[in-house]
Structure formats: C-alpha cells, structure tokens
Amino acid sequence: MSVPAVTVRIDATLPEAARRMARHGVKRLPVVDAQPG
Question: Locate the CBS domain: which residues (predicted)?
Fold first, then answer.
C-alpha cells in the first residue's frame, strides 16, 4: 500500500475515483466513510 494511503470518500463519483487512481498510479482504491467506527 502507498504511504500515505490513497483513498476516496464514500460520496465520491466514479469519475473522481478514476481520476484519483490515475493521478496516483494505483490499481486499488479503498473507500472510506467520514464517520469513524
């Protein structure tokens, strides 16, 4: 995994997620929720 981890918020659109993956050169993108727990 990259450090720091490259993630996307749960409310991100598919194009936003794809751009983030391309920008950082990653093949997997964990989806995170804003609320811990």
Answer: 1-37
